[in-house]
Fold each of these.
Amino acid sequence: MAAAMETEQFPCVLTIQVPFPTARLASVALQSLQVDKELSPLVRRIFTITPSGSDAGAGANATPDQHKTLQVEYRATTNRMLRVAVNSFMESLNLVIEVMEHLDADVLAAEAHSS
Amino acid sequence: MAPLYALGCEGSANKLGIGVVSHDPATNKTRILSNVRHTFNSPPGTGFLPKDTAAHHRAHFVSVAREALKTAGLTSPKDLSCICYTRGPGMGAPLTSTAIGARTLALLWGLDMVGVNHCVGHIEMGRVITGADNPVVLYVSGGNTQVIAYAEQRYRIFGETLDIAVGNCIDRFARTLNIPNDPFPGYNVEQLAKKAFFEEDGVTKREPVLLDLPYAVKGMDCSFSGILGAADLLAAQMRKQDALLASGGTLKEGEERITPQDLCFTLQETVYAMLVEITERAMAHVGSKQVLVVGGVGCNERLQAMMGLMARDRGGSVYATDERFCIDNGIMIGLAGLLAWETGFRTPFEDSTCTQRFRTDDVHISWRSD
C-alpha cells in the first residue's frame, strides 16, 4: 500500500548505476554522498551498493568484495524536479571521483615514489 | 609529544582555501605548513551567486588540495590527525561542495572529521598570528559583522549587524560604481577612497568631501542597509551630474559635485566610525585593552588606523593580520578544528553536514580554560 502511494506521488523515477573498481571506493562514494539530505520534499532517493557486472548474477550470494556498484534510485513528483536532483547528484559524484583519482593515499604514495 | 597536523578546507563564500597546520599540545606552538587559496571573482557590477561559486569550488578542489599537500611536504596523509571543514555559517551550495570533497578525503585516508564554525576559525587564527591572548574581537567580513568577547568557554556576541554585513554593504556599493571585484571589491573601494585626497608634491590640494550619509548605531548593534541605500542615491545623483555636465549644462549654485572618490571615502569613514564606536563600548564593558580585528574587512588599512587611534586613547592597541590570514583561508579552519580535536571533539561522519546559520556563541570553546 505504502509502495503504491509512493509510485503515485513520485511517478518520475531514474536509477543510476555507477560501477567502481573496488568495493572500498564504492563505499567511500556512498558515504560521502548520502550525508547531505535531499533539499526538496518533492524528491526521494535511495542509495545502495550492489554487486556489479559479471558478479551481478551472484545476487544475495555475492561476497563483500563484489559489491562494487553504487546504485541510486531517484523518485520525484515531476520530471523537472527529477532533472534538478539528478544534475546536482552528478556534479557531486564528479567531485568525489576526481578526489579518488588524484588524492587517494596510494596515488599520492606512487607519485612521491616516482618523483 | 610530537606536533599534530590537520588539513583545513574552507568554502563558505567565494574563496576556496585548503591548508595544512600543525599544533603542538605540549608547547602550544602553531605552525603553518601551507595556505592555498583560489578565489571566484564575478565580473564588475555583479556579485557571486551560490550555484556558480559551488561549481568553482568543485572545479578547483583537487588542484588546491594537491598544492596544499605538496607545499606542506607531508610524506603521507596518514601523518594528519583530522580533516577539518567549514560547517557554517555561509552559503549552502559552496559549503556543501567543499564538505563533499573534505568527506571523501577523510574516508580515503581513514581520518576523523571535524566540523568548524567559520567565525571561531577567524578568531583562533587571529589570536595565534597576533599573539593577542584575550582581546575584544571585531569580526567583519562580507557575510558577518560581530563584536565578540570571550567568557566562560564561549565567544559571546556583544553586538552585531541588524541587517547586512559591513562587507556586503561595501561590496554592493562597489557594484553600484562598477568597480572590479578583483582582487576584492573592498580593496578597490579603499584605493579609490585614498584618491579623495588630492596631493601634489606632498601638499594637499583638496580635502576630501564628507558627504551626508546616515549613521546607524543602535545600542551595541549596527545597521548598514539604509546606508547602502543612501549611498546608492548619491551615486545616482552623481550620474545625473555627469550627464548634465556632458551635455554642456552647469550645476545649480551651491550644489556639490559628487565624485566616486568622495563617495568611497564617505562610505568608509561612516561605516568604520560605527564599528569603532561599538567596539569601544564592548572594550569598556569587558575592561579589555586589546582589540583584534578579523575577517576580510579587517585587512582594510583605514579601519585598522581608526581602530588604532581609539585603542591608543584607551591605553591599548589593535591587533590585525594581513590578507593571508584575514581573508577566508583553510588554515584557520584547520587550526580551530585541531584545537577541538585535541580535546576529544569529533564530528560523526553521518553528521558531517553544513548549515547556513551557525552562531559564534553556539560553539563550546573546550580548549580554553581562562
Amino acid sequence: MSQRVKRLLWVGAGLVAFLSALIFPVLPVILQSLVIALGATWQILANLIVITLISILVASFFAPLEALGWWAGWYGDEIETTQHPGSLVEPFPTDLEITRYVVYLDGISQARFTYLPEVERFLDALAIDLPDNIVLIKGIMSYSVLNKPLTEDRLMAFFWRLADRLQMNPRSSIIGGLIAATINIRNVLIVSVSADQRYGPIYNQGTAQLIHNSLMGYGYQPGMPLTLIGYSGGGQMAVGAAPYLKRSLKAPIELISLSGVISGNQNVLQLEHLYHLVGGKDLIEKVGPVMFPRRWKLFALSYWNRAKRRGKISLISLGSQVGHNGADGPYGDQALLPDGRTYLQQTVQIVSDIIQDKLLLGQTAPQIHSSNYDRYQQSPFNRPGTYPLHQSVDPDYYRPIAPWMGRLILPAREQRSRLKGVFLEVHHAPPEYQYLVGHNVILRWSREPQVRSYLRAVTKDVHFSEDALYSQKQGNIHPYRIDHWQQVGPLESLAGARPNDDVIVRLKDPGVTEGAMGKEPSVAILTIAHEPVQITGRFYGLVQFLESSEDALVTDVRNRSEMLRVVHFDRASRQFNGLRETICIPKAVFDQHHGSHPSTLQDITKSPANVMGWYIYGAKDASGKFVVQSIAPRQLLRLQPDQVIEGKAAWTYLKQQAWKDLTKGTIRSVLLHGVKQNTAPSRPPVPSAWIEGDRALLVHVYGGIGGKKKEPTASSPIFFGHFAYGVATVIQEPLADELMFDIEYHQVYTHNTDGIIAGTIAWNRFLGDRQFGWLGRRPVCDLLIKLNVFTEGYAAQDAMGDWPQLALDSLIAQLEVMTARYRIGDGTGGTYVGAAHNCSQDSNQALYAALKDVQKRMKSSPDYQELLRQNPAQEQQFQQIVRLSKTIRRELMPFGTARADWQTEQNSDGQVSQATLGISPEEDAFQNIRIGLISWRTLLPRLASETIAKLFLEQGASIWVLRANQVGGYDPDIQPIAPTQIGW
Amino acid sequence: MAETAIAHLESLIFGALSLKSEAFQQIQVLSKGSQAALLVAFIAGFSQAIGQGIVLFSNQVRPLRFFLSLLMSALLFAFSYVFWALSTWAASILLFRGGWMTLPAVIRTLGLSYAPLIFSFLVALPYLGLPISTVLSIWSFLAFLTGLKAALGLNLWQAFGCGVLGWAVFEGLQRTIGRPLAGLGRWLTNTAAGVNLVTNLKDLERVVSRKTAPVGKEKLK
C-alpha cells in the first residue's frame, strides 16, 4: 500500500471521528423526539380506538331502546307504522290471481326506504324474471320497529343523511368510507338486538308487524304462500320475524337468506324451508357460525342444528369467487362466473327458481340395501302393467270392487302448477263415464271449506332429513320422488309414496268435470273430498277352492304361478255349485325382512275358512286368466256371529277370551253387547241391530309372526303389535246376497321396507293382499264398535243443515290429517317407530283431537244449545257423548294434561302448528321415552284397544269382535303370537 | 380523619375487582366499613336494575315509574343483601360453631364482593349481555370467596362451604319464614312499577308473545 493511500485513510477516519463527536450528543435528542412524535401518533390512534369502542358501547345500549320504548308504549298512539308499507317492485297485477307474495329485507347498509343501486338492480331483474302473479314487495325499513328511516325525523338524521350520501358515492375517500360505515355498525347492533334472547321477541314482533302491515296493504289474504328474502343482516331480521308471521298469517313461509348473517336462536323449524345462499369469499356471513354459539355443532339441540338435521335448511353455494357485497358480492354485475354469467345473473336465477319451485337440489342417494318392495316387483303379479286396462268379467260371478277405480300417477314437477293434483289412470268407471276407462284424467281436491282446511293442515315442503336419507339407505321406502318439492299435498304424497306409480285406489263419489266439448278424456277432472282408498285388484268373486285328483294343483313354473280349480257361489241355491273354473294364484315373493312367506297355498282347501268360501280379488292378465291378488274369508266379514255375549260377560270375554284361542287358520266372530252403567238393572239391555248402511268404529290390533321362521321383533318376550283405527260399513254384498262388513283402515304407519303407505287402506289391501297383506301371517283382532251417539249422531242432526260433524266423521278427518302427515313425516320425508310417536300413540292423538273438536263445536253452537233446551231426549244424548269423550280423554291421559304436544299440536283452526313427526327416536331419546311413559296406555296397542272398547261397552255399545289367526294356506314354519297383555 | 372506608372506596373496589385480599382486610379495619359495603351493594343493585331494564320494558312500564322502579330495585337489592349476609353468618355458625366470625364482618365482606356487579348495567347490551351476566356472577362469587378467605381467615374449602350453605339458607328462608318479607318486596316492586311484574325470562317471553303490540292498525294475533 502506498504512503498516499495510507494518508487518505487516516484523514477519512479522522473525519468520521470528528463528525461522530459532533453528532453524538444530539443523537439522543433526535431519537427522543422521534419517539415522542411516534408516541403521540399512537396515543391519538389509541384514543381514537377507545373513543370508537366507547361510542359503540354507548350505541349498543341505545340500540334496543327504540323497540323497547315502542313495546312499552312510551311513544303514545301517534306512531303509525302503516304509513310506509313498502313498495312494489312491479305494479300490482290487476287481473291475475296472485299465487305468492315475496318480501325483500335489505342488508345492514340500509338507511332509508330506497336501497343501494346494486340492490335495486337485483330487485328489478328479479321482478322481470318472476311471473306476474307473484307480488314482490321492497322498501321495508326492518332496522326500525317504527319503520322509520335513519335519515328522517331523528336527532341524528343530518349525520345519517351524510353517511348515506357517502355510501351511495362509490368514489368517496377513506374518511367518507368510515363515516358511511357507521350505518353498518348501527344496523349490526340492531341485528344483535334481534338475535338477543331477551330483546329478540320484542324486536322481531315489531318487524313481523311491519311486514304484516305491508302485506295487508297489498291485498294479501291469510294463508297465501309467502317468501321472505333477507340479504345479509336482513337474513336475521327475516328469521326473527318469521315465527310471528307464521302465527298471524297461518301461511307456509319459506325464507331465502342471501349471504345472511343468522343467529341460531330463532325457531327456524316453523319455516317451510330455509335456503341459505353463500359465496366462497363471503367473510361477513362466516361471522354467523362463529359468533352465534347456537350455530356451533356443540349445541346440537339448538333450533338451527335441529332444523339442519331435519332437512329444513339447504346450503346453496354461489361459487368460490363470490363475496359478501360490492363488485364481488352476489349483486355484482361486472365479475363473471366460469359459465359466463355475472354474479347478479346467477343470484337472480337461483332466487327466482326457488320462488317458482324450479330449483333442482341434490337428489337423494340410492338405496344400499334392497327393500322388500323392490324384491316384490320381480313377480309380475305385483306390477300394475300385468293387467290390461280394458277388461270385462261375467257379472254373475265377478263384480267390480268399486264404481271408480284407478292408478295414481305422480305428475312431473313442471306439470304441478298446471295440474294442481295428480293423474289417475282410470281402471273402472260407472257406465256413464265408460269413455274414461284406460285414460289418464286429472284428480284434484274439491274446494269445500273443510277440504281446504285439511289441505292447509297437511301441505308441506318436503326436504329429506338426515334420518330419512339414512332410513332409505337401510332399505325402507320413502317418497324420494317428491324430495325437494314445495307444498306437497296429500294426493301427491300418496301418488309419490313409492318409487313406481303403482298405488291402486278406489274413489268415494268423485265429482266429474267434463270439458266443454263433452266426452274428451284428456280434459276430464275428478274432484274428491276424501283421501282415495288403497285397494288391491279390480274385480272380486266368491269361490271355494276345490280339492280333487283331476283338479290337482298345477304349478306353472315359468310364470311362478299356481293354477287352482275353484267353484263359484250360486246366489239362487245359496251354495257353492256355480261356475267351475281354473284361476291363477301367483306365488308370493319371499319376505326376507320378516323371514317368512307372505302367503301360501299349501292345504288351503283344508283351511276351516274354505267351508264358507273366499272372496277373491284381482283382475285378468293378458291371457284372460283371472289372477288372484288378494283373498278374504267370507266367514270373517259376513254378519253372522259365532257367539253373542251380553252384559258384564262381554267385557270378560274381551279381556280374557278374545286372544286366547290362537289355533292357526281359525276365525271367530263374536258379538258383544255392553250394558250402560248407571241404568236400572231391571231394564234389560236392548241390543241394537246391525243393518245395511250402519257404520262402526273399528279398532284394529295385529300380533306377531312366531314359530320357526319368526320375525326379528318377535325375539323379545314382549310383543307390542300394531294398532289402527278404521271404519266398518255394513253393505249388502250382491254375490252372496247377504250383509257384509266393508272395512277401511286408517293406517298410521311408519315408513317401511314393504312399501305399505300410511293412509286409508281397504281390508283387501292391508290384510287380504297375498303379497303385501298380513292375513296369512299374523293373528288379527278387529273390534267393530257401534254406539249410536258416536257412530250415527244425534236426532238433532236432521234438524240442522250445517250441524257439526259426527264424532266418527271428526275422527276420520283427524286420521286423514295424521296419515297425510305421516306420509311425508311433516316434511322430513320419514317417520319412525318410537315411544312418543307410533301407530298407537298417533292414532289415539287423532281420537283425542276429534273428541275435543266435537265437544268444542257442540258447546260453541248457539243453535244447538237452543235445540237442546227444547228437547230433553237430545240433551241426554248430548250428555252421553260429553261423558264418553271425557272418560276417553281421562283414560288416554292418566296424568292429566301430560302430553302437552297433543294439546298444542293443532291450533284453533285445526292447523298443525308444531311439526313433530319425522324426528327419529334417537334424536331426543330421553324426551321420547318420557313422553312414551306418560301416555303409556296408548303406547301399547292391545291395552289401548281394550281400554277404548271397555269405555264404549260401559256406554252400552255393541261390539263385533272379528278374530283371525294366520288364515289361508298352511305354513308349518310360523305360529301366531298374541300381543302381550300388560297394563290391566 | 380521612381514613374512612368511604374515602378509600375507589381503591377498595379496584382491590376487590382484582381479587386482592388486602382490600378485604382493609375494609374490616377502616372506619365506616359497613357503610361503604352497603354503598357498593346499592350501586351494584342500581346497575343491575339498569341491566335488567328489559323486564320493565317487557311489562310495559311507563317512563316515570320506570325510574322509580330502578330505584326501588336498587334499594331492595341492598336490603336483600343484608339478609344474605345474615344467612351466610348463620351458615358459618352452623359450620364452625365459632363466634369469631362476626355479623358486621360478613356484611362488609359480602358488600365489597359485590364490586364486580357494578358492571351489571352491561347486561343490557344486546346479545353480549347474557354471557356478561354469567361472567359477572362468577367474578362476584370469586371475590366473595377471596373476602371470606382473607378477612375471616378461612381456607378455600371452608369459604366455599360457607358460601354455598349461606346460599342454601337464604333460599330456604325466602321460601319459609321470609315469605312475608319477599311478598312485601314484590308488593313494593309492583307498586313502583304500577303493574304486576313478570320477571322470569321464560315467562317474559310468553308475556311478550301473548300481549299485542301497542301500535299499528293490523294487530298481530
Amino acid sequence: MTRVGRWIGRHLILFAGLLVLLYLFAPIFVVMLMSFNEPKSKLSYTFDGFTWENWQHPCRPSGLCEAVSVSLRIGLVATVIATALGTLMAFAMVRRRFRGRSATNLFIFLPMASPEIVLGSSLLALFVSSGFGGRLGFWTILIAHVMFCLSFVVVTVKARLTGMDSRLEQAAMDLYANEWQTFWRITFPLVFPGILAAALLSFSLSFDDFIITNLNAGTTVTFPMFVWGSAQRDIPPQINVIGTAMFLLALVLVLGGELARRRRNARVR
Amino acid sequence: MNLTGSSDLVLSGISKQFAGHRAVHQLDLTVPQGEFFALLGPSGCGKTTTLRMVAGLEEPTAGTISLGDQDITGLRPYKRPVNTVFQNYALFPHLDIFENVAFGLRRRGIKEVRQKVGEMLDLVELGAYGKRKPTQLSGGQQQRVALARALINRPQVLLLDEPLGALDLKLRRQMQIELKRIQTEVGITFVHVTHDQEEAMTMADTIAVMNAGVIEQLGSPAELYDLPATTFVANFLGQSNLVRATILGQADGSVVVDVHGGKITVPVPRCRVTEGDVWMGIRPEKVFLAPAGSEEEAGSNVLRSAVVTDVSYIGVSTQYLAKLPWGQELTVFEQNTGARAALKVGDSVDLHWQPSHTFVLDAAQDALAGVEDIADDAG
C-alpha cells in the first residue's frame, strides 16, 4: 500500500500534466472525430456513424471551399504586407532615434489592447464615411487584417532585434562587409526566427478572425463567417475536415521545424 | 602588407563629444608601424572610444586619423585596412568557426579561402574546430577565433578591445604570451586597449596611459614605471608612496627637498617641478627598511623614526606598512631572500633609498588619483 502511495506521489505532476493536456486537446480530438461522422439529421451533434465520405468530398457543402479560399488568400496577402511593414517599423524603432519614438512605441500596443468589436465597428464607420460603403469585401477585409496583424509583427520582431548584439553588425562592417552585406549576412539571418514567428502569428490571426471581418466583409464570406453562418442552420461535417486539416498542417510545420533544428544541431556536434 | 615603414597610425587633435560628455579630448598620438601599442586606463577614460574611432565605428567630433599617407578619418569601417578583436569577441552565432574566420576573405572576394582559413586556424591551434558553432567553444577558444578572424585579413593595424577581459587569470597569462608571439610573428601593428596595467606592461612596446579623455603619459613600460609624470600614472601603474614635501633649492645637479624636517635629494631630471610644494614619490620595492639608527649607504635618502604597523607575508615577498612621525603610512616591499630576520609590528625602523629612484611631482595633483580605479576594475 505504501509502495503504491509513494508511486502515486512521485508521479503526481505527471498526472496533473496529462490532465491539463487532455483538457487542451479534447476539443481538437472531438473535431477530428466529427470529421468522420455520418450525421443522421442536419443538426446532429452526436457521432452517428463512421464514414470517409466527408474527407473524400470536402467541398460538397455549397460555399465552404470558396470561403476557405477567400480566407487563405486574405491570410497570405495580409501576412506578407503586415510582416514586411511591421519588420521595417521594428527596425526603425529599435535602431533609430527619432521624434515621437516612445509615443509610437505606446500606440503600437493600442490595436492589441482595444476590443475587437470596437476596432471593427470604427473601421466600418471609417470605410462607410469614406465612400467604401457599397464596396466592402476582399480589400476592406485585407486592410483591416493588416491593421491588427501589424502590432503583433512589430512587437515580435522588436523583441528579437532588441536581444541582438549590435556589435555583431559592427564586427561585420569591420570585416569588410558593407551595409547591404551586413544586413543580409548578419542582421537578417539572426532576426529571421522573429520574422518567421511574426508571419505565422499574422496568418493564424488573420485566418481565424471573425469579429472585425464580419463587420467589414460586405457580401464576402470567409471561413470563420461560413462556420458561424452554418452553425445557425446545420453543421456540415466537412467543417471539421477543414479544421482537422488546418490543425494537422500546423502540426507538421511545427514538428518539421523542430526536426530540422535537431538535425542541424546533431550535425555540428 | 606594407613594408615601407610609412604606415604609422597617426591621430591628430582627435576629440569625441557624446551628448553632455567629453569622451576624448584633443588627442595626439603616433603609433609606429609594427609596434605593440597599449592604451591603458580605467573604464570610462576614453580608450575604447579612441579605438572605435580608429576602426571607423565612431566618428570623431574633431581631428584627423591617418594611416601612412592615407587620411582615413571619414572612411566607412569596411574601407579601412584595420580589423578589430572585439570585447566579448562578437563572433557570428549563426556561422560556424570556419565561416566566421572566412568572413573577411569572402567579403573581399579573395581566393583560396579554404587553405588560408585552415592555416589561420592552425596558427591559433583550432584546426579541428572549423565545423563547430561559437557557442560550443570555451572562452579561450572563442578568443582565439576572434583573433584569427581579424588576423586572416592581414590588416595594417589590429585593434584589440580588452581581448582578454573575459578569461580567467591562468588563461589570460597564457594568451598574453601567445598574443605577443603572434604579433612578433606577423609584424602587424597592434593597438591594445586594456585597464589591466600588468597586461599592458607584459605585452606592449609602448604604453599610453589615458585618464579622463587625455593621455597622461606615453612611453615604454620601464620608462613609465621608473619615472611617472603624474600622480595618476604613479598610482595606476603599480603602487607609489607619495609624501608631501617642499623644495629648498638645487645643489650639484640635484634638487634638495624638505620632507617633514628630513632632507632628501632628487636628480633634477627626475623632478617635474623644481620649486614650491611637491609630492615626493618612491616605489615600495625601492625602499629598504633598517633597524633604527643603523648606518646607511653614503648618499642614500633617509626618513628616520618610523614604526612598523603591519606585516603581510606574501611568500615571495613581505609587505610592510611603516608609520612615519607625522602619521603617514608608507608601503615597503621586501624580497624574502632570507638574508635577515623579518621585522615585527612595533619595530622602530629607518627608511633608506637611492636618490635616483626618487621622483618629484606637482603638488597640485591629487595624491590618490588612479588609486581607486584599480580596485573598481579589478572585479
